[in-house]
Amino acid sequence: MNHEQDRAKERIAVELERSRRRSNGLTLDALNDEGLLAQHSKLMSPLVWDLAHIGNYEEQWLLRAAGGRESLRPDIDRLYDAFENPRAERVTLPLLTPEEAAEYNDRVRGQVLDVLDEVDISPAVPGQREGCDPHRALLDSGFVFHMVIQHEHQHDETMLATHQLRKGEPVLLDTSGDVAPLSPPAATEVLVPAGPFTMGASDDPWAYDNEHPAHTVDLPAFWIDTRLVTNAEYLRFMDDGGYRTRHWWSREGWEWLNRRNAIAPAFWSREGQEWSRRRFGRNEMVPSEEPVQHVSFHEAQAYARWAGKRLPTEAEWEKAARFDPDTGRSTRYPWGDGEPEPRHANLGQRRLGPSPAGRHPDGASPLGVQQLIGDVWEWTSTTFDGYTGFHAFPYREYSEVFFDEGYKVLRGGSWATHPTAVRSTFRNWDHPIRRQIFSGVRCARDAEPV
């Protein structure tokens, strides 16, 4: 058991270092103080706020809650409380300077590594987290460390969205090479058979509260597209008057479209008869075979209706992603239980955008659905809520406060999502109007009754 715990701690230490290297690369290594302190969009925080927030969150959960240590900077807790300070107002706060934020984060991390050496992260009794001592529940299989690592990577993805909204010269290195083969599926859609499957996480030490509890869901048969919707396919919707035809849009979607005067995905511009896009300060022609990204739920829904289909429900997406009809098992990822490798999925900011549709055939699900993990977040038709038996842990503000507030569930992660922060049970959510996120479309449709 000690050997297993040592290996788990080594993994945590490595992931903590990786997350910080990435955070610093998106902030301290990318922009000067002026760029870090500026608010590049009212939708987003100044980058320096995100930088200090990840340190403050780490201090609260790993030093104080897990390690029982005194606060290093109790005076800044309110400054970096995401619920007390809306994004549009954070630029007005007396924030730490980039130098102060870096120094603070280094102090926190130094003590966190000491705490990691000291604490017991062995597994608690399976399924008993809710009933055991709160401190023991936090440390169960290293859960609180996993939570903090994922939290930092989630803010790194948010930082990337801020960089996309930022005006000015490019500062992020664009590495566009793909390491996975291009092998589009032969069929454009696949039938997912009717029947039950296990949805949600059971004993996954990285899973959040909203992924629990694992439960059985019985679904009727349905069809789901084997590929993500590409830019070329989305352009056909646009060329067919998709943004001018009321029929394809919900009432809320049509109201949004008219308020925004939307005519294309975010960051697209007309160049004569062609379309270009702005991507991290670079202007380029829209690549036809990449999955479309930066579309809202309303746009995704309208496209699906135009195509004679619909968006999948969250349960349908998860069944298509992890159910193996040969074994009846639900796996952690579409390709099985092994952690993501570059051949499986485009994750972790390896390139600054999605891979062409048809890449990563080794990451396909048992049913033959490709690119379910990575590339773009996929909108579902499901409103975010807790599963039956949901128990908030370790705090309500992670997910419970967002239930029933009109947030739509997104699944699968994007090219900007780190591998530790996504799996087939992971649930993301956002307002249906959001487009700065790296979101795209996959369609589904009902199966005809037999």
Characterize the structure shown.
The protein folds into two domains: 2-165, Up-down Bundle (Four Helix Bundle (Hemerythrin (Met), subunit A)), CATH 1.20.120; 177-450, Alpha-Beta Complex (paralog of FGE (formylglycine-generating enzyme)), CATH 3.90.1580.10. Helices cover 31% and strands 11% of the residues. The chain has ten helices and twelve strands. It has a four-stranded mixed sheet with strand order 10-9-8-11. Strand 5 (268-271) and strand 6 (274-279) form a beta hairpin.
Give a brief description.
The chain is an alpha+beta fold. It is built from ten helices and twelve strands. The chain is globular, with a radius of gyration of 22 Å.
